[in-house]
Write a structure and sequence with these properties.
alpha/beta; seven-stranded mixed sheet; about 30% strand; 12 strands; 6 helices; about 240 residues; binds S-adenosylmethionine; five-stranded antiparallel sheet
Amino acid sequence: MKDLFGKALLDYQNGNYSEDLVTSTNISDEDILPLPYLFRSFSEMPKLEQKALKLSKGKVLDVGCGAGNHALWLQKKGLFVTCIDSSEGAIEVAKARGVINTELKSLLEYTVSPTEKFDTILLLMNGTGIFQELSHVATYLKHLKSLLNSNGQILIDSSDISYMYEDEDGGMWLDLNQGYPGELDYFLSYKGQSENPMKWLYLDFETLKTACITVGLQCEKIMDGEHFDYLVRIY
Ligand SMILES: C[S@@+](CC[C@H](N)C(=O)[O-])C[C@H]1O[C@@H](n2cnc3c(N)ncnc32)[C@H](O)[C@@H]1O
């Protein structure tokens, strides 16, 4: 991992913003991910993220915190927040912006004692992406459950991307032999350098709900977003 995502966050944080991130997937062309979006304030966040923040309570874990936008808002509201991210640059930026509790850890490496568990766990900006593949979802959900207090909640957003497989006549060009359609190969580049290809998972609501049930969790939809995205509460 070259941590180009982290390098881009650091550049922006340090006043060296000159280029945006460029992303693409195995089923979509290049797209620009503007760095200012990764430093969004509450009013610039999608409604679905605003809702997740308003529903957050107690001790909060922000998984894949990036630059710490969600954590900073919650901290200001007086909540105790811990941020984890697997990107060194992201954690450096979150700290520099004022997030008090940070850990440079991948989700599956992060464990806590029974007294340190969380009341709310946030995974935002297509939080299911972190699960990478459908076959990993149960492992990640069980791990998240192990970090959660008994009355706790996981707030996570995702998208049903089946629309990306629709052709102009409304038909689908889905190859059923290719596995779950939300499993994408994700490519990122920044300032002429390419990151190692990553897997990024989009889940439709019914698939996520079924996965939750198989590991003894409940899943309810809180709201739909503006473009096939949605927010759920898992408990
Ligand atoms: C799409 S960004 C979202 C950042 C932030 N939540 C936001 O909304 O601006 C995904 C973040 O998850 C982090 N990430 C990816 N896989 C992770 C993992 N297994 N454990 C912890 N963080 C991870 C990435 O480094 C990145 O910062």
